[in-house]
Specification:
Rossmann fold, alpha/beta, globular, about 260 residues
Length: about 260
């Protein structure tokens, strides 16, 4: 039987991989045999821990500090990955943040632009940076991490974040259409309420309890439960998926 999740010989660049979903994805891909570039902005300790977990299990990984809202930083990161690990086969665009909850009348142009850059703009230019070599090599995979907020508008005070994540959803379709015939598959995963530092920072205990009650499965998800779907999308098991967004939310949002 073919092992679709054998990523031996593959190189994966995972942005925002120092905690939460990104870190779980990096560690899972490492277990599957891929060489991993773990990027982080400020959380060096988390990135180093992810690398240690991968290398401790016999894998290959490096940590790279980078600001993915800065195009020269993206180019530098991609070049470093190619130099140290080889050509990039898989890009997981996971970096992003809400930054702070703000209602519409309190939301400044500066904060709007910052959140758009952190989530949507960074993902687009990361994709743009890896696509040329993927075209040369005959294909590749890009997985964008969007959010249930892209579909339902998010909780109060997150319109900037939900709008950015919705842009990622649409971007996924546009990139998929443009590059599918060249062998580059672009899909997305849309997490619901996941037990990550995001909710520790931006969601109160009372709100979390109410969210749990609204989820048919009765609990929040785990980062590894999202990582496994990302691995599926990156694998040959998803070879005929193109421009799709997979909802991972315990039934909170059903199509």
């Amino acid at each position: 039987m073919h092992n679709f999740f054998d990523f031996s010989g593959k190189v994966a660049l995972i942005t925002g991989a120092s905690s939460g979903i990104g870190r779980a994805t990096a560690e899972l891909f490492g277990e599957c045999g891929a060489s991993i570039a773990v990027t982080y902005h400020k959380n060096r300790a988390g990135a180093d821990a992810a690398v240690a977990a991968i290398t401790g299990g016999g894998g290959r990984a490096i940590a790279i500090q980078a600001d993915f809202t800065n195009s020269p930083e993206i180019a530098r990161t991609v070049a470093e990955v190619e130099e140290k690990l080889g050509k990039i086969d898989i890009l997981v665009n996971n970096a992003g943040s809400l930054v702070e909850r703000l209602k519409t009348l309190d939301l400044t142009e500066q904060r709007w632009a910052e959140v758009m850059d952190l989530n949507a703009t960074s993902a687009f230019f990361a994709a743009k940076a890896v696509v040329p070599k993927m075209l040369e090599n005959g294909g590749g995979v890009i997985v964008n991490v969007t959010s249930i907020a892209a579909r339902n508008g998010g909780a109060l005070g997150s319109i900037h974040y939900s709008s950015a994540k919705a842009a990622m959803l649409t971007m996924t379709k546009g990139l998929a259409k443009e590059f599918a015939q060249a062998g580059i598959r672009v899909n997305a995963v849309s997490p619901g309420v996941i037990d990550t530092p995001y909710h520790e920072t931006f969601t109160t205990a009372e709100t979390m309890e109410n969210l749990r009650k609204a989820i048919p499965m009765g609990r929040e998800g785990r980062p590894d439960e999202v990582a496994s779907v990302i691995a599926f999308l990156a694998s040959d098991a998803a070879s005929y998926l193109c421009g799709e967004t997979v909802e991972v939310n315990g039934g909170l949002l059903m199509d």
